[in-house]
Amino acid sequence: MNEHISMRVNSARLSGIKGRTVRLPCKVLRLSDDIAIVEASDGGQVEIQRKNVDMTATYVEVIGNVVDASTIKAMATLPLDSEGELDMQLVNDVIELTFESRFDKLFPRYKDT
Predict the structure, then answer these.
(1) CA 24 to CA 40: how far, in whole Å?
(2) What's the whole-model pTM score?
(3) What value, to the nearest 5°, has the Cα angle with vertex 22 and ends 88 and 17?
(4) Is 101 exposed, middle or buried (0-12, 13-18, 19+ CB in 10 A)?
């Protein structure tokens, strides 16, 4: 089952999971041809390698592989835009709760995190 997990993470959770597939809810700050700079739910900035991946919404969830502690190679994105601002503090609180051992049955994690 471990190979099918894509954990929802913030920027602080990227270190130590190189090569894993993750989901990063974030706000798009800057776009260039193949790179995006985003702000994760904990306020940290992450570089997204986004060749052929659309990131036109203000808030997106990036699904991709962790390259290093500050870079993700995107496979896809999901738009998270609503009719206003997304409460990123609330998003971050939920992400952090999923890492608490009391929720292991609800939110499976990689074995080594």
Answers:
(1) 7
(2) 0.89
(3) 110
(4) exposed
- What's the average pLDDT block by block, 10 residues per block, for the chain (113 residues)? 76 93 96 96 97 91 96 96 85 92 78 58
- Alpha helix segments (H runs only) across the chain: 88-98
CA distance between the termini of the chain: 15
61 vs 79: CA distance, rounded Å: 7
In the block, residue with structure tokens 């592989």: 65
Cβ contact 73:65 at 8 Å: yes
Q: Are 109 and 99 in contact (CB under 8 A)?
A: yes
Single-letter amino acid, residue 41: S
CB 86 within 8 A of CB 59: yes
